[in-house]
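Running this now, will post back.
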Amino acid sequence: MAFLDRRQFLQLAAFGGAVFSSALPGAAHAAADDFYFVQLSDTHWGFEGPENPDARGTLPKAIAAVNALPEPPDFVIFTGDLTHTTEDGRERRKRMAEFQQQARALKVREVRYIPGEHDAALDQGKAYSEFFGPTHYVFDHRGVHFIVLDNVSDPAAKLGEEQLAWLQADLQAQPRDARIVVFAHRPLFDLYPQWDWATRDGAQAVELLQAHPNVVVFYGHIHQENHHMTGAIAHHSAKSLMFPLPAPGSQPKRTPVAWDPSQPYRGLGFREVEAEPAEARYVLSERPVTQG
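Update: finished.
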């Protein structure tokens, strides 16, 4: 499908689902090409409970929905909590192997991953790294610089001094007007620390990122959409593929939203992100689990 057709598709999709546009100021980026990617998050492979009676079927349904999109995305990224916590290291690796096998069904050129605390907090990312590689890294794609941060391998919910120094060095190597997209599992700002919805030293990362005017952050962890600004930086959380969680501070405890048999998969879904680097603009389209 040509790009113009895809844009038309997004315009049509806006009438049937949520579309959020994050536009940032900036000069034209002549070398940048438009493209799109898909964000899936919080699959919690291995979870069992009444909060999702189709726990082993939801991820395959979402993968089928991604594969049914009119045009394959440039890449797919899973933003953490690929698997559900288990203290049994052997079972943890079994779940990661099963998850990896499921993800291989995606019909895209590239699939990327970041860890969540369910994957990495108990062993500081050891098992995760055996299957998926480094827990923090960078890559470039069509004029956009992508930074993957790890704010979960430290059980204290920190990035740590070493990673912050690594981030600072990477940012200093980028032009000031670079198009930068950051992926992290936890929010980098204090969304609701009482529920572990924060990164203890996230403010230091945000301060480093503020030196660049064209930065957007995508994260998971809170199992619902949330859109927040820290200065010029937009932060967008994604829905889960296992169970939704309540709005921040809306009830005494962070218990999952009950499954509704009359509306199965309500509150679950994945996200398309149309990147327009020349304008530093990102169009977000939220998709349900069972539709392409």
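The mean pLDDT is 91. More later if anyone needs it.
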